[in-house]
Amino acid sequence: MSHVMPHMTYLEAAVVGLIQGVTELFPVSSLGHNVLLPALIGGNWATDLNVAAPESPYLAFIVGLHVATAIALLIYFWRDWVRIIRGFLTSIRDREAKTVDQKMAWMIILATIPVGLVGLKFEHEFRVLFGKPVRAAIFLIVNGLILYAGERFRTRKSLAADAEVIAEADLADPRAAPGRPAPRVTTSSATTSSATASRTATPEDAASGPAAPVAGGPGTAMHASGQRAVKQLEAARAFQADSRLTKIGYWQGLIIGSAQILALLAGISRDGVVMVTGMFRGLSRQDAARFSFLLSTPVIFAAGVFKLKDLTGPLSNGIHGQVLVGSVLSGVGAYLSVRFLMKYFTTRTLTPFAIYCVVVGLASTIYLSVK
User: Fold this and answer.
1) Is the CB of residue 21 less than 8 Å from the CB of residue 330?
2) How far is CA 182 from CA 176, 230, 272, 287, in A?
3) What does the DSSP 8-state code read for residue 55?
4) Cα gap 205→370, rounded to integer Å
5) Residue (of 17, 11, 73) closest to 45 by Cα position
6) Cα–Cα distance list, 8 to 51, 138, 151, 305 (Å)
7) Who's near 25: CB < 8 A, 6+ residues apart?
8) In a structure prediction context, what are the per-residue pLDDT tens digits for the chain, which is 371 residues long?
9) Following CA atoms 160, 164, 166, 172 in sequence, which dihedral angle do they give, to the nearest 10 degrees?
10) Are 315 and 3 in contact (CB under 8 A)?
11) Residue ranges per domain, the chain?
């Protein structure tokens, strides 16, 4: 039996996996980086990691990275997804969509349909036609301009929504609104926060009841009380965010979700264009980021599952170890990225990412044109 030599080194797998996990959620286009990085390095990297080649093992590798990224998002937002899926099931059972969770479930479904249909029909054509390094560099510049425009021309409604988010955060937790560092949780403040969060959390959260007695003395109990208060505040804020999101309605959600179609172009960021579209439709920056991450989860996961035959078929022969290494790093990178970005977008802007995309895109275009 002949031995099939790997078409990808472990170094390539590790570097690309980590970059994929980070750039999938940062608004800088993971596909653009997947196309540009091998071309810029050149040599075997350009041969091994050619996304536009029809039978490249790189395609199977990317499937593994997508699945890992989706799993990382599911882990980070698992409480939200439990709520949303429960809302979907009760909506089917009751044949209505009245609660925040029920409306949120249908908003995500409707907002995902356009990119799903276009992706199924044209993904291969888009990848072959636009998965060229110079074109990816040009679209990276375009992505940067979109991000800059999203901040430069924000609507009054979106700016007012930012103020509303801060006001609601103040109401939920007077000790630490976005923009101010959170003080250390003490026994009394944890008790106050827990009570405040209980007033703003969902009925399901309230139904979970008080924390069970914790063995180990007062110190352990105080620590557990503080941790529970933090979790209740996070649950309350997530529910408040979904409540604000559902107020924009299904039609606006569909428009925002349709922006994901542009991400089929290498160099255009899914999360970036969704955030910018969301802000143009009146969402706060933080809510736009949350909606983009929630929308990304089923899209990325579906893309991975749909292409699973590449991962289990002959394209993956000889690179199973590389896929595993790349996927683990991709998942870790994605999880750390979403944790960072959800805090970052409470007070910070898209402008640094816009500058990065324009600078890297211009430099790459010049380099690839003259080399």
Assistant:
1) yes
2) 5, 11, 28, 20
3) T
4) 59
5) 11
6) 13, 27, 40, 22
7) 69, 73, 271, 293, 296, 334, 337, 338, 341
8) 333 334 678 898 899 999 999 999 999 999 899 889 988 988 878 877 776 666 667 777 887 888 899 999 999 999 999 999 999 999 999 999 999 999 999 999 999 999 989 988 887 777 777 778 999 999 999 999 999 999 999 999 999 999 988 887 776 665 554 444 444 433 333 333 333 443 444 444 433 434 444 445 556 566 667 777 777 888 888 899 999 999 999 999 999 999 999 988 889 999 999 999 999 999 999 999 999 999 999 988 887 777 777 666 676 677 788 889 999 999 999 999 999 999 999 889 999 999 999 999 999 999 999 87
9) 180
10) no
11) 10-161+245-370
Tokens of 235: 């649950």
193: its two tokens = 């926060």
Pairwise CA distance, residues 248 & 96, whole Å: 18
pTM over 0.85: no
